[in-house]
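Pilot study result, target chain (267 residues):
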Amino acid sequence: MKKHLIALQVYTVRDFAEHDFAGTMRKVKEMGYDGVELAGTYDMKAVEIKKILDEIGLELVSAHVNLNLIEDDAVLDDFAATGMKYIAIPWLTGPKNAEELKSTIERIQKAGERCKARGMQLLYHNHDFEFEKIDGRYILDAYYEEISPDLLQTELDVCWVNVGGEKPPVYIRKYSGRAPIVHLKDFTGQKSENMYGLIGGEEKKEDVSSKFEFRPVGYGLQDVPSIIAAGDDAGSEWFVVEQDSPTMNRTSMECAEMSIRYLKSFL
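Predicted structure:
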């Protein structure tokens, strides 16, 4: 049976990590996670974080780094010095028209070249707003169609793929061979204006209302086994758990543990 590698996006437990990064990472390891993905470095250099993770036994899978920081030599060199294989653009707002799209694609491509020169593969982590169309195609598809796979690969976030109107397993398979990391994110409810402001019940998967709410993996609307199967078909190396905000009257660490416990129940 295939060994599935499961990482935690540290953003999930940022409220704990910012007070005690090393202690939080030890607890993440004890939960059963194989690695982590960074979203910030907590006033440390990336190489310092790598040393902590090595001592704990967690792999540094990737990091979410804003595009303007990827364009900074010092920042990019620090991440490259860790030996980290992947680096991801976490989001880009816009573009709104064909001209802006062309400019954005050129910028991402240059970033991909900078990462490749340092031995890292650039990924793009989507939200739902990349499923807006310009000239008949999704913004997200335009990025991947116009930029070669050696310079840009996918980090598909299945929550936002779903909210964006696509079926996650189908969309993951669409990018087979180009989907090294899949973001596992579960939710309940429907698309709403306050989705990005939910920074923050009963423990039932069926507890679904119209209110949008992030959930531990396996406790929301997503068909997680089908998503894992699609990732396997697409050649995904890592599945990264992310929950933007804790819910169900649980702490962020409790939510992270619920997610890995669910995944370990059938993987």
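One observation from the pilot: The longest strand covers residues 5-9. A full batch analysis is planned for the follow-on phase.
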